[in-house]
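[Meeting: bench + compute handoff]

Bench side (C.D.) handed over the final construct sequence. Compute side (W.E.) agreed to return the predicted structure before the next meeting so the bench team could plan truncations. Sequence as handed over:
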Amino acid sequence: MNAYIAAGCGDDNMVNQDDDDYFFRNGFTNLDCCQTLRSHYSQYCTESDMMRPENLLLITGVMLLCEFAKTVVRKRDVKFLPEAAVCILVGTFCGLVSLFVYEGFSVDEMSFNAELFLNILLPPIIFEAALSVNKREFIRRRFPIFMFAIFGTIISTFITGFMVYYITGAAKVDGLPILDSLVYGALISSIDPVAILSVLSSLGMTETDTIFILVFGESLLNDGVAITMFNALVGKYAGGGDVTSTTKDEILGALADFLIVGFGSMAIGLATGVLALVYFYVLHGFLRPVMEVGSFFLWALVPYYICDIVGWSGIVGIVVMGFFMDVFIAAPKGGPIRWDITDDYVQFDDGDSTNGTPETPDRDAMMQTNGKMQKSMRTVYLSTFEVTRPLFGSKRVRLSPEADRHVRFVAHLMSCVAENSIFVYLGLFLFSNKYDWDILYIVIGIASCILARAVMVVLVSWVVWHIHILRQRFWYSDAGKDGLTCIQDTSCVYGNREIRISRTARRLKEKNTQLVLVMAGLRGAISLCLVENVPIYNGVTGEGSNYKPTLKAMTSASIMFTTFVFGGGAYYILRGLGIQSDRELNERTVLAGSQELSTRFERTDSSSLVDKDVSEPLGPHQ
């Protein structure tokens, strides 16, 4: 109120002295007064002052120290310290030094803005992941990836949220409200499994292995789902934060909004991709490699910001754009990829393999025994998509090989710098006054997100496995009197023919694979970005969260725990479990299945011979 009077907006004798007065918020029109107040706020009340030379020098020095520390850790081959953990430790060390060396120093003076996270640092991370994922293997395992990324993220959000709500309510009188609990569940459901992927690579796995692509694919798509749910829940703060009185119509409306946001963002990504194709087609031969690279990244950002403008998911838009540009515009990666789709063999994943094409039942025989099944085989080319040839000559829309190499290098560079910045920020701002380090809340938050992840992985794995088996039984159970008999979860027997079970379904049935997926639930950059975007409670409007400092502490603690414990212990745990690549798994399971199959056939043949020997001598006596 003193600033209001000092700006010449009124005096003590005015009737509406209360800042919460309706007239003060809705009927005030003194523009000179407003500009004076705004200038005063900008000078004395802004949250950050990032652009001061001293702060920029500190940030530059911290980033250089971070790169130095990462190099030392990599050169020494320190397995228990992931790169993200190194950045957190560097940030923590620099924060401690600054507090003791510089009197009066406060990290809150250089606090990052939430918009900086979401609009500047986040897009390069997501786009690089979308650009680098193996599209062929992603398509092969599309069903389990979508199950984990969409339904799994939704399940994790609500399990985490309700666990936090009920446990904190039982442990403390002032437990976390239901809306804040669900917001925490949404933001902490985003995963960042870079450390696990690095460990899997060190154990001999490649991007074509089932476990690797499941972890990578889920992390790529689950960010968009987590952010969409986060935005939907944060919007509830505008209604006073009451979600207990949610009606059926509101639930259906939220589901409709979720679908609209998802498919609308995908449409924007595809439409922008087509415009980028036209751009590179028209300017083919005129763009130098450096201009190609610049244009490539500028086009990549377009759908992200368009989606943000219309209130949709920029993450989904930039992921679709990354897929589209890698398939159509980036330099070709080789020959076409063959994807066989049959009506009688459910390919949730593999279809190929290091062991050759899986055996499938004879189609003519199946047509005779089951009229429902149709004989069909289609071949889809995923890398070059031949459908583009009538529209665009493939060479006219492709980047030059030189530009393509630079695109991938620059994408990886920007992603690494952005991720390093976020993890350094996490370590540096552990000493901020804007965190409420309540041990009970922190323990509950960490335990809830880990348990929710474990429940989700087991549940989704069970669903994927049984859907696959039920689908196979649907096609084969009435084809013969013996039906479908499964052997060691690796193959099924129909008559005298072996039917291979999906490699992904077999993998997800294994407890070791489920443990890997649970450990892959490291929390990282996205969670930290989202918690910074939680609105602080506004006493005038009555909107926002009173528990943002607590949510920030819970999120930071969860990120550090999963990074240091899961990321640091992953190499030793996975090596001790004997996690195998797909090639090793196939060699073991095919051998075991073949041995049991041969034994079963031998018993059948022996039974036939016995019957024949018994029946033949009876003929002459008849």
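W.E. noted at the follow-up: The domain at 53-239+254-605 is CATH 1.20.1530.20 (Na+/H+ antiporter like fold). C.D. will use this when planning the next construct.
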